[in-house]
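Task card 7
Instruction: Convert sequence to structure tokens.
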Amino acid sequence: MKYLKFFGRSRGFKSFMKHSFVFVLVPTTFILSGCVATQQDMLQMQSQMDDLNSSLANMQKNQADLAIKMEDLSQNLNAFSENMDDVSDQISSFNRNLRQMDSSIGNKVNNLEQKIQKQRDEVNSDLLPAKIYNDAYSSMSNKNYDSAVYGFKKYISKFPEGELTKGAYYNLGESLYAKKKWKDAAISYANLLDKYPQYFRVPSARIKYALSILKLPENKKDEALRYLKSVIKDYPKSKEAKLAKKHISKLNKKPKKKKASPKKTSPKKKSAK
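Output:
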């Protein structure tokens, strides 16, 4: 009985142990499998860590290379900056030289313009009098006496000491004489005779002066004869002397007395018886 009990207990014990083993084996399996999984994860993590370390090493290398390149770039920038400073200095120097050159050229241009203007003024001062005189003379030749008078008066007014002033006085008198401005013509001839007594047209001017005053309302016959005779005396062999003699002869020639025509008597009327 004891044996049976024991046996029964043994069988129960075996069953218990069997089941207990199962319960013990299952957690152990899980624990072992967990250990295996953890080891794989560790290996995987180690691989990742290796990759990360390799990437980090590459990054550090790249960073070092980048730092070297940045240093080179910095040096290049410094060199470029120095070159730019040199270029800036050269540009400033060039601008200074350009301003100096511009100022020098401007002064030379101004001086040249002044010289040109002076020469132009000199040319005009030489040409303008001749142009005024020639225009007036051309007008007189074309019998445009009003324009001629204006031109000769303008020349005398602007160039009272000009080389052509003598001719301007004479031709002014001629133009006025043609316009039958006897008094003005006589004044112009008188100015010529007074200012330029050695002028080659003086003999002609004396005759024209005498003829001009003879046209005036006043009796200027004696003065006219004096001027005509002076031509014969001072220029005896000149053609003006011959002309003066003709005018003197006309002035001294006594006018013929007109015969009195017989008065016509009207017939007497017969008285009626």
